[in-house]
Design a protein that fits this description.
Blueprint lengths: L1 H28 L15 H48 L7 H5 L23 H16 L10 H5 L1 H5 L1 H22 L7 H8 L3 H10 L3 H13 L3 H15 L20 H20 L3 H18 L10 H27 L4 H22 L15 H4 L5 H28 L4 H15 E3 L5 E3 L6 H32 L2
Antiparallel strand pairs: 1-2
């Protein structure tokens, strides 16, 4: 009994000794929390599933909200686009009333409509939804034709021509798509008879002008075809088209007979008078620049007599804007032909004094045109002139007046510059030369915000401007040196 008890005690002691190192090692290896921390409670499965379900409900609600917002934005965008389309259709492209004076002086065609039925305005319903959208896009871009593209944009890098005129580039692209639809609709007889012709006029290039000629035989189209052919180097074709334009203005059927001397007949239609004047300017330039000086001399003398007979003997402040713009256009054409005539006479070996006379007439005519189109309240300095609101506010007169104003300033500047060149060749008074170049700078410049004169790039180029400034400064220095020399002699003599 005692022996058994002793053995069990001894066994218990050995087991205790064997457990102590293991316990001591386990104390250092255990990853369980210390005894004083709270025991980790296990989360029941139902709570986990409840959280997942709650998150799913939240995502579902978020998706519904985003979908609803997206639907609202989409509907609003479609409504906005449709609303803008209808606004453009019924407001921006609304039919423009033809003022009797506008019609009388033939300016109604200067504002091209976008629908063959001009009484309704808007776009032709026969084009369909897509075709009408393209026409509206073309019209909107054409109205914003002076918007320039950012040079760093991707579109400008891929299409450098778009950099020059972003609005015009957009208009051409949209019109090309609209024409593709319009041709199909026109062939099916769904368009107004004049719609396709109007769209072709809006996008008129060489091939398109020929198509317009096939649909509408007019002196304007013949004149434009002549200019386009001349620009392409097709000289004989150009002269033939200009001859057709003259024949139509005279009321004759067009033929292949070349009218090198122009015409002595003045059309009764003011619009045809302006086309005839422009055609004679084109022919004058062609003969002068191609060495046909005798033909140029004969044509120019004939044209100047014709222009003189069409102009009123005295200018009247009571003339309506359409009437004033018409006579200003004829006078400006006379100015350009006078400048051409001075160059031709110089090429024929005439005395510089005779050439300067014609240049002086050109400068006088163009200066008168620019001032006639300008606001009367402005000062007399050419740099401050702007086109009068009487023209700017008219949809029919706005663009012709702006173009004529720029052309008149450009011609006046060129005439004054050439007078300076000829006077310098004849050893003229340096003061007169300074005056000529100064006048050329005035007519080709404008004032910036600080009142400094800078080049107007609508009228001249930077290189030409710099050359004018250089000549003016050089001659001014000569005048100043001469004055200093004279003052020195006067001081020496005691005067």
């Amino acid at each position: 009994m005692v022996l058994r008890h002793g053995r069990s005690a001894l066994l218990h002691a050995r087991l205790s000794l064997a457990r102590r190192p293991l316990a001591r090692f386990a104390r250092f290896q255990s990853t369980e929390r210390p005894p004083d921390s709270q025991p980790v409670e296990r989360v029941p499965n139902e709570l986990i599933w409840k959280g997942v379900a709650s998150a799913g409900d939240t995502l579902k609600r978020t998706f519904i909200i985003l979908a609803a917002v997206g639907a609202v934005v989409t509907v609003a965008g479609v409504a906005l686009l449709e609303g803008y389309g209808q606004y453009f259709e019924h407001v921006r492209l609304a039919p423009i009333p033809r003022d009797p004076e506008i019609v009388k002086w033939g300016w109604e065609d200067e504002q091209l409509d976008w629908n063959g039925d001009t009484s309704k305005g808007g776009t032709d319903p026969g084009l369909g939804r897509k075709g009408r959208d393209f026409v509206r896009t073309a019209a909107a871009s054409a109205k914003a034709r002076n918007i320039m593209l950012n040079p760093e944009s991707t579109r400008a890098k891929h299409n450098p021509s778009a950099l020059l005129n972003f609005g015009l580039s957009n208009s051409v692209e949209a019109l090309a798509k609209a024409l593709a639809i319009a041709e199909v609709k026109d062939a099916a007889g769904k368009l107004h008879p004049g719609t396709l012709t109007l769209l072709l006029k809006h996008q008129a290039a060489m091939s398109l002008y020929e198509r317009i000629w096939a649909r509408e035989t007019s002196p304007f189209v013949a004149w434009r075809l002549g200019d386009v052919c001349n620009g392409l180097g097709k000289k004989d074709e150009a002269v033939a088209w200009w001859s057709r334009a003259i024949q139509l203005c005279e009321g004759h059927s067009p033929s292949d007979t070349v009218q090198s001397a122009g015409t002595s007949t003045l059309p009764s239609s003011p619009a045809h008078q302006r086309v005839l004047a422009s055609t004679l300017v084109s022919l004058s330039s062609y003969y002068a620049t191609n060495g046909k000086l005798k033909e140029a001399d004969a044509l120019q003398n004939n044209a100047l007599q014709l222009f003189q007979s069409s102009l009123p003997s005295e200018s009247s402040d009571e003339a309506s804007p359409p009437q004033a713009l018409h006579f200003s256009t004829i006078l400006q054409r006379a100015s350009v032909v006078s400048l051409h005539h001075a160059e031709v006479l110089f090429g024929m070996g005439k005395k510089p004094a005779e050439c300067i006379q014609w240049l002086s007439s050109a400068a006088e005519f163009s200066s008168h045109v620019a001032r006639a189109l300008a606001e009367k309240e402005l000062e007399e300095r050419p740099e401050q002139l702007h086109v009068s609101p009487a023209y700017v506010e008219s949809p029919f007169l706005q663009q012709p007046a702006k173009d004529l104003f720029i052309e008149a300033r450009r011609t006046a500047a060129e005439a004054w510059k050439l007078m300076g060149v000829l006077r310098e060749r004849t050893k003229g008074d340096p003061k007169d030369l300074v005056h000529c170049y100064e006048q050329a700078l005035k007519w080709s410049g404008k004032l910036d915000a600080e009142g400094n004169r800078i080049p107007d790039l609508n009228v001249t180029q930077s290189a030409k401007w710099d050359a004018l400034v250089k000549n003016r400064n050089r001659l001014e220095e000569m005048v100043n040196l001469e004055m200093q020399r004279r003052n020195g002699w006067f001081s020496f003599l005691g005067w």
